[in-house]
Structures
1.
Amino acid sequence: MLGLEPMRQDIEYISGVLDELEAVVQDASRVPMRKGRAVVDRADLLVMLDELRGSLPGELSEAEDIRRECAAVVAAAEEEARRIVEDAHERADAQVTDTELYRRSQRRAAETIDRAERYAREIEGGSEVYRDRVMGQLENWFEDSLVSVGESRQELTSSSPSLTKPKRPAEPRPAEEQDSEENRENGQGWRASSA
């Protein structure tokens, strides 16, 4: 209770100084052609501001110091909390690798990868066998077709008298034309395309 009385007196004094300031501004002579402007005695105004500043309770400056200290403490606490959380995350990550569950999951992952790689090798080997088998069947089919075409030609040649007439000698042709002509006669004028 005793601390409140001086504070009340300080507040009354401050209120009085503010009233005087207001009166000085109200009574100031106006500047012609400048609405809202007035001429105030600078010395009087500065004296009143000094009185006002001097009458402010010391608690106000102490409160400002305390506010600054509190802000610094809060910032330091937040920084410490962030560091503690980071440290906890690092420890948790380190401890996870030491758990049996982690080791088991690593083993299962390695086994799964190994199985997948073996399966891929089996599929690759199977596709090579299949490819070789299909290509072999195609080769046999073509060989059988060539034999059949040759036999058919032989039968046609032996059964048709006009085809057995002796041919008259032809003029010599370039070797390239002779090769392509012979290939056509032998049934080899076709080209296989790869699928």
2.
Amino acid sequence: MEIKSRHHLRSDGVSDIEEQVAANLGVELDADTYELVELEDSEFDLVLVDGEPAVLYVDDRPFLTVRGANEYPPESHVVTVDAGAVSFVSDGADVMRPGIVEADADISEDDLVAIAEESHGKVLAVGRALVDGDDMVGDSGKVVESVHHVGDDLYEFTV
């Protein structure tokens, strides 16, 4: 991934990220530096939090990257999948109802969510909810569209 531009965020930009991540995920980012990295040929912009790609912008909304979510574990907007779904989700597959063991009730359709595995709670992917959290557990159907996952270009990004 090629960097188009990179610059430190002003305090109002930092406050916006910290407030939205705290409100949506229950996560307090505690960092000294925040840098916005605009990428060539990518729909995402990244925010380096103390030099690590911890936040991405999806549709102008900040959300934790997979690496960011494992560094700052989210307390809400989490979908938990069983062991049978881990390899599929890690490869970028969308999440199907039978693989979900739990989903936060505060998730609304179109929200960004962190997708975690049940045994260790590690985040494997970030996705977009296709249904409300209360409707995610069940027998059939796709309920989360994968946006970013372990091993993709964004996950492998280094500066």
3.
Amino acid sequence: MPISVVINTYNAEKHLAKVLDAVKDFDEIVVCDMESTDDTIGIAKQYGCKIATFPKGNITIVEPARNFAIQQASNEWVLVVDADEIITPELRQYLYDIIKSPDCPTGIFISRLNMFLGRYSSKKSSNDYQLRFMKRDKVDWPHTIHSVPRIDGPVDKAPSKYKMLHLADETIYQIVNKANIYSDNEVVKKMHKNYGCWALFYRPLWRFFRTYIIKGEILRGKRGLIRAYMDANYQVYVVSKIIEKKLRSQDERK
């Protein structure tokens, strides 16, 4: 059975050639571009990709373009890849093998190995499972940040030895800027939460403990400690912004 690779892009020239080279042996590559101003389209054309355009407008996240991108694929099975992720030959072979099975799930989570401050994180820490392989007509991707696609059918995880390699190696400055943007979008998704002072304490603390101890970042020295602090700070941003928005709304009603 053929598989289409779907890649959403916006100014993605930095890693795109490596990403496309890693998926060139799939049956189809669809690049859904959000009006890039760099050489993203030029690189995609060099690799013979099918190109679709999704108007960017004021959108700052990729999720609103996911469903449109997936529907541009010609094949039943779709692998969604970010423009800074490498698909290994072993993962490719696993996907082609699994879809031959009569009990193949409709969606498959794939483990992603992430980079932080110039090095890949520990394998335990990087069991960052992403739902990226699915049947094209069985998926609905919510338009909120970090949303998990809804799959009409059974979902399973690929063995953790089959990983995507995440090439993004952001500076602390970039991480903080992105956390500010992402947390703004996450407020929309979580405004129904009744967060208070207790959430400002336990959510960052739990995220720090989860990253530093449970995921094993404690074994990575300074890198691990900084990574745990960054994860904890993100929770501070989200909870604080939700509380801020509700307090301002209350003040306006007085």
